[in-house]
Amino acid sequence: xxxxxxxxxxxxxxxxxxxxxxxxxxxxxxxxxxxxxxxxxxxxxxxxxxxxxxxxxxxxxxxxxxxxxxxxxxxxxxxxxxxxxxxxxxxxxxxxxxxxxxxxxxxxxxxxxxxxxxxxxxxxxxxxxxxxxxxxxxxxxxxxxxxxxxxxxxxxxxxxxxxxxxxxxxxxxxxxxxxxxxxxxxxxxxxxxxxxxxxxxxxxxxxxxxxxxxxxxxxxxxxxxxxxxxxxxxxxxxxxxxxxxxxxxxxxxxxxxxx
Length: 259
Prior knowledge:
Layout: H1 10-18, H2 20-26, H3 33-41, E1 49-53, H4 61-66, E2 70-75, H5 78-87, E3 92-95, E4 108-114, H6 123-132, E5 133-146, H7 151-161, E6 188-198, H8 200-209, H9 212-215, H10 219-235, E7 245-257
Parallel strand pairs: 1-2, 1-4, 2-3, 4-5
Antiparallel strand pairs: 5-7, 6-7
Helix pairs in contact: 2-8, 7-10, 8-10
């Protein structure tokens, strides 16, 4: 029988199967401004239904629940979905993919892809998202990115990006190539700055380990990446010897309306 993970990129299928715990521990949350964006941009409130598509471990699911809307989380990786369900019991968790959403036609008010759309930025996925959206429904796209305008962050990104292979990434901008798409209006774009504060082991080392294509590497290659990250921390005065550090992030939030 074909598994849901058969339809997703190999880096996601291999990496996220083993890195759910690191994802929870190492990934940042979202800035306070996202609550207003969900309310005013996507129109989420009590009585609305939203799909968290490619929901992972539920990092964004909690924000959606807080909007008051009914939340349906769709995720193909069983290990991620299990973690999501445990942490967000108020969400309905379903196995599915962006090209096979297990919901009826015109059944939801919004679909949100947080940290996920780059994995499935295709016409086929957009057609499936249109199918489940009601007329006038909205597609939201959200990403957290480290702020590489900070010198040490740029160095960290260089360590990570060197081993990305053919993995789709937000920063390349390739996901934009599917827009404009018939039946969706123009993309509205907003950006919010925030920080991820915690122990360097969590917010830097574990965050890197949670990256799909790094989690999928052989053990010796993962150890080499660890060594480079630890060396960077030791060489950076703002990080070395600190119990608590803040990694600067920028959140990019987009939405488009089904016409």
